[in-house]
Amino acid sequence: MVSQTPHTGIRERLGELCYSAGLLSPLQKMRAWWQKDLRILAYHRVMPVPDPEQYEFDMELVSTTPEEFREQMTLVRDRYRPMRLSDVAAAINAGHPLPPDAVVITFDDGYDDNYRIAYPILKELGVPATFFISTGHIDSGRPYAYDWLVHLILLSDASRLELPELGMDVPMPATRDERRALAGRVLDNMKEISALAQAAMIRRLEDAWQMPSEHARPADCRPMSWDQLREMRAAGLEIGSHGVNHWMLSKLPREELEHEVLDSRNALLRELGPMPLLMSYPVGSNRAFDRQVIEVTRDAGFDLACSYISGTNPRPADNRYSLYRIAVERYYGKAWFAALLAMPGVVGYPTPAHLATTDEGACL
Description:
This protein has helices spanning 10-20, 24-34, 66-79, 85-94, 113-125, 135-140, 145-155, 176-190, 195-208, 226-234, 254-272, 291-299, 334-342, 344-347; strands at residues 39-43, 45-46, 62-64, 81-82, 102-109, 130-133, 160-163, 168-171, 238-241, 278-280, 304-310, 323-327. It has 364 residues and is an alpha/beta fold.
């Protein structure tokens, strides 16, 4: 996903003020007394923040640096109740309340920096986490399609970007920054067309610009391997489904939707053995899943499913197949992150209203 980094404003200043004044701990304790909601943090990539002028992929997938991730996980371990997502499911199934200040750590997609950088830190600190992977990319080693599309737009020598699928025909910008902004527009617009049309559009650009993803093995856009995932699972971390091809599930015909859900489930069980079945919907806004997606996911035997709608979960049993998460972004400083956990409704950035509902009627 490509987006513009928001300017720092009143939310960040308020968080930093509470942090510097030592107010977060008492505010957290006060909040835990009356609001026993589940917080689920969502990450994509943990890596040193690259130079935007040199980096050839989507900057917005970089959630945090290794140093900041260690600080964040230390805070979660020391001040909160880190839980496995499967333990949340078990508590819901048993009708048991969750402990105050419950926090779950999740990752989407399956980039190999999750194994190289995030996994050793989590293992050292003893913090559990769930990694949602797109199994087709683990099988093939191919880069993720949305990230590859950003790569295509950043590096193409074409003079125009012609996308009749989206009604777009614009000159290709000269600067890297302008191309990143254009890629963001494309990614946002394409999420209104079907998943199969999205895939066909990207393949068409690959062919037209002679930049096929199947021959690419870029270190900056590489998925994890099954062997790495087996090692992580043996160490106590959880692996869940993010579909097969990272397609928006609500944009698929019913038959393709069932294949995405069932084939990803079967790949996990085949490669990693019996496990709790956990799902994160690719993209995860209300455009990416609906009642039919929830029904197919539930019927396939998945215990829980996460959206990418921003918020906490006061009654996770009520939205167990559309759990809200709090996205972690690379521009969050130490104070902002600490305040985000202590006061998520005050400091966090809400999902825009038009993206914050599902066909279940769930809303923030």
